[in-house]
Design goal:
Structural class of chain B: alpha/beta
CATH superfamily of the largest domain in chain B: P-loop containing nucleotide triphosphate hydrolases
CATH topology of the largest domain in chain B: Rossmann fold
Oligomer: heterodimer
Helix content of chain B: 25-40%
Shape of chain B: globular
Strand content of chain B: 15-25%
Number of helices of chain A: 13
Shape of chain A: globular
Radius of gyration of chain B: 21 Å
Strand order of the largest sheet of chain A: 7-8-9-3-10-11-13-12
Strand content of chain A: 15-25%
Number of helices of chain B: 12
Order of helices and strands of chain B: EEEHEEHEHHHHHEHEHEEHHHEE
Bound molecules: adenosine-5'-triphosphate, iron/sulfur cluster, magnesium ion
Strand order of the largest sheet of chain B: 6-7-8-3-9-10-12-11
Distance between the termini of chain A: 52 Å
Structural class of chain A: alpha/beta
Radius of gyration of chain A: 21 Å
Largest sheet of chain B: 8 strands, mixed
Helix content of chain A: 25-40%
CATH topology of one domain in chain A: Rossmann fold
Number of strands of chain B: 12
CATH architecture of one domain in chain A: 3-Layer(aba) Sandwich
Number of strands of chain A: 13
Chain lengths: 367, 331
């Protein structure tokens, strides 16, 4: 067995019930100015073995949603209404009803989160080994040798030299090394689901690639169920099976990675894709989205994107659209998604060098 | 005509004795008027230090910067003042580069008055409004009395550009100018900068760690790649992106995550021999990329630093081993 294979993971997650189901989840932050409606009714199933990317601009509620799942929101935040169900084997738990002790257990053994700005997530005065053993002990695991063996195995998996890292303090490690240590630590107690908030942001390009390769391995070889949170579309393109676009606290589109990147039906998703360059392939003209995201305390009426949307019609100002089916396993919350489809027939997203063709266009042309 | 900016063996060391680091090591390149040059490379490779020396904010330890053919260290005080006005720098962080206690009006009119760019005081406001429109901050009348914190990150960066324009610059060093701006509005700022090239004859040195952005902004220009303080490769953007020769450039291009699933899955994976960037305090001998380079030739690469040599397809490559070899980064 290759050195960086994890040989302890036996569960096959590729079938079965969704490990996480979010139903109409709302999160608000109380502030002096009023309530920040950071997440406004998110309903989504995380399928076993899949990797789901949450993309969207800064402030769209991505981190808030992740933190709500592991219940690490600040005290000013309130999750209500909403239900979060977690399933593993025959067990089914209502996450929002767990006691603090059960929650601590859940966070390490069921659903682990690697935080945005992970560099600050370490205790600066503890070595990697001390942090690891403290965590293990807190979960009733006192067998020093077993914990050490596990840590060595995990560090090797993330391609770090255990000898160099185990007794190091966080400041002695580079950003990429710290990110990998955190990833290793998050796997310590064998969680089923991993939530990674901006896992590569602020890392150098070559280090980003190392992390992406590791995460691909977790996904493809270990069948981990993962949620990636990123403002960087490239992370979704590199790692996700399905992608959810968030805008102003809602999922406005959800589909397979190919659907989202080549056949988006929500104007905001389309706008994001047309705003981001690729490095390979020829030159493509890019476009930005006018305006800026709305104030989450005083939200606009109707569709929260209408002030920036070139497809907006009167109805958009009045009524907020719900997610509706726009294709197989593909939903979008837009009154005018068919106009987006038409627009893409005229100006398809011939991305990169490969000019990936939209099969629906080929079919339409054949007809 | 002389290049507008030329760097000759530009070198900067920081620190003393054993702790000395060479942040920029004998960097030489020239920028012609109207040309767009992007400086790319990973964190700490010396991009900002180079940019600051070009803008005259930092004195080189060795080597020189030439402005319109004259070494800036030899300019008399009038000529030096003209150079300092002609070469402006825009920083990454619009939050810290604008004084939070001043309104946009004060931020823009102060340099206009200080440098006598308007005939009378009363003209300053009109000029400020015009500049805000140039950077697409419209309606300018609504913006001018605001404070920086009342603007979005993208709007603040536009104010920083408008302020740079008050002194009629010929050359702008844009150091990670859109890195902190949300992706959805980045392009509009780049488009605005590109328009300044046309309308105001501004030449850009665009510093970024984002190669896709460099490709987009300098598609008709050039890219210079730095690694540990040295230029390892430069050339016309289209050549450099499609036919990179230096193993470090290739490694960077192949590592960049692509915002396109097909491209992401068709990228060639280049395995490096070592993952970590060496410390500037303990640089490897010879080619400083050699401990990581997959094409390392013992006895050659670790002995002498390879010179930057021209290649027929355009630009220069500091790798005698690979400079003639084309590889495709898509598989
Ligand atoms: N503790 C808090 N108190 C009040 N408002 C908050 C708090 N934390 C976040 N917010 C607000 O909630 C909204 C969603 O924030 P969140 O961090 O979830 O966004 P995000 O999508 O993760 O953005 P980013 O890409 O910047 O990380 C933002 O408007 C943010 O300002
Ligand atoms: N004033 C200073 N004193 C000491 N060292 C410095 C100083 N400024 C920069 N350095 C060092 O010089 C090297 C180059 O830094 P520089 O800021 O130019 O890199 P950069 O390429 O702009 O990186 P980034 O992408 O992170 O902005 C780094 O190792 C940095 O720590
Ligand atoms: S509902 Fe209307 S405003 Fe909202 S995204 Fe669709 S077209 Fe645009
Ligand atoms: S000189 Fe040698 S070590 Fe350096 S990049 Fe070329 S082949 Fe690699
Ligand atoms: Mg976030
Ligand atoms: Mg810099």
């Amino acid at each position: 067995m290759a050195q960086n294979q994890l040989d302890w993971r036996t569960e096959d997650n590729s079938t079965g019930k969704p490990p996480l189901s979010l139903d109409n989840v709302h999160v608000g932050y109380a502030t002096r100015r009023g309530k920040v409606q950071a997440v406004r009714g998110v309903t989504v199933d995380l399928r076993a073995g899949e990797s789901l990317a949450l993309i969207g601009e800064s402030g769209s509620g991505k981190s808030t949603l992740g933190l709500a799942i592991v219940r690490l929101l600040p005290e000013t935040a309130q999750v209500s209404p909403g239900v979060i169900i977690y399933r593993r084997d025959e067990r089914e738990v209502d996450v929002l009803k767990l006691t603090p002790n059960e929650m601590r257990e859940f966070r390490w053994s069921d659903c682990a989160m690697v935080f945005q700005a992970a560099l600050n997530a370490f205790n600066p005065v503890l070595t990697v080994w001390n942090q690891t053993f403290d965590t293990a002990k807190a979960h009733g695991w006192h067998d020093k040798r077993a914990v050490l063996a596990r840590l060595v195995e995990l560090l090797q998996f993330v391609q770090l030299d255990p000898k160099r890292v185990i007794d190091a303090y966080p400041h002695e490690l580079s950003g990429g090394m710290r990110q990998r240590v955190l990833l290793a630590l998050s796997l310590l107690l064998n969680p089923q689901v991993l939530i990674l908030d901006e896992p590569t942001t602020a890392l150098d390009i070559i280090t980003q690639r190392t992390i992406i390769k590791l995460l691909r391995q977790l996904k493809e070889d270990q069948h981990f169920t993962m949620i990636f949170i990123s403002h960087d579309l490239a992370i979704a393109a590199e790692l996700a099976d399905r992608v959810a676009t968030m805008y102003a606290g809602r999922i406005v589109e959800l589909g397979t990675s190919d659907d989202i990147f080549y056949r988006p039906r929500h104007p905001y998703t389309l706008g994001l894709i047309r705003a981001v360059p690729t490095v390979s392939g020829g030159f493509e003209q890019l476009f930005s989205i006018p305006g800026s995201p709305p104030d989450l305390i005083n939200l606009p009426s109707g569709c929260k994107f209408h002030e920036r949307c070139s497809f907006a019609t009167d109805r958009c100002i009045q009524e907020e659209p719900e997610l509706e089916t726009v294709g197989l396993n593909h939903t979008a919350a837009c009154w005018n998604w068919r106009a987006v489809e038409e627009e893409l027939k005229l100006n398809p997203l011939h991305r990169g060098a490969l000019n990936v063709l939209d099969p629906s266009i080929i079919l339409a042309e054949a007809a | 005509m002389a290049p507008i900016i030329e760097l000759r063996n530009l070198t900067k060391r920081f620190g003393k004795g054993k702790e000395t680091v060479t942040a920029v090591d004998a960097v030489s390149f020239a920028i012609e008027p109207g040309e767009t040059v992007c400086l790319v490379g990973e964190s700490g490779c010396g991009k900002s230090t180079t940019g600051r020396m070009v803008a005259g904010l930092l004195d080189p330890t060795a080597g020189e910067v030439l402005f319109e053919g004259k070494s800036i260290s030899k300019l008399d005080s009038t000529a030096f003042r003209r150079y300092r006005q002609s070469v402006q720098i825009i920083h990454q962080d619009p939050y810290s580069s604008l004084n939070p206690t001043q309104t946009i009006r004060e931020i823009i009119t102060a340099p206009l008055l200080r440098h006598n760019k308007v005939k009378k005081r009363g003209d300053a406001e009109g000029r400020a409004l015009a500049l805000l429109e140039v950077v697409d901050l419209t309606p300018a009348r609504d913006i001018i009395d605001k404070y920086p914190h009342q603007l979005s990150g993208g709007q603040r960066q536009r104010v920083a550009v408008a302020r740079a324009l008050t002194v009629d610059p010929k050359f702008i060093v844009a150091d990670e100018a859109v890195s902190m701006v949300d992706v959805s509005i980045r392009v509009s700022i780049l488009t605005m900068l590109a328009r300044l090239k046309q309308e105001f004859d501004v030449t850009f040195l665009f510093i970024t760690h984002d190669l896709a952005l460099a490709k987009y902004f300098a598609w008709e220009g050039r890219i210079t790649v730095m690694y540990l303080g040295r230029v390892v490769e430069d050339g016309p953007t289209q050549r450099l992106i499609t036919d990179a020769r230096h193993p470090y450039t290739q490694a960077l291009l192949s590592a960049v995550p692509e915002a396109d699933p097909e491209l992401a899955h068709h990228k060639r994976q280049i395995e490096l021999r070592g993952a970590e960037i060496p410390s500037l305090l303990a640089l490897p001998p010879g080619c400083t990329f050699h401990p990581r380079c997959p094409y390392f030739v013992p006895g050659q690469c670790d002995v002498a630093a390879p010179p930057l040599e021209p290649v027929a397809e355009g630009g220069r490559v500091a790798c005698p081993v690979r400079k003639l070899e084309h590889i495709s980064l898509l598989v």
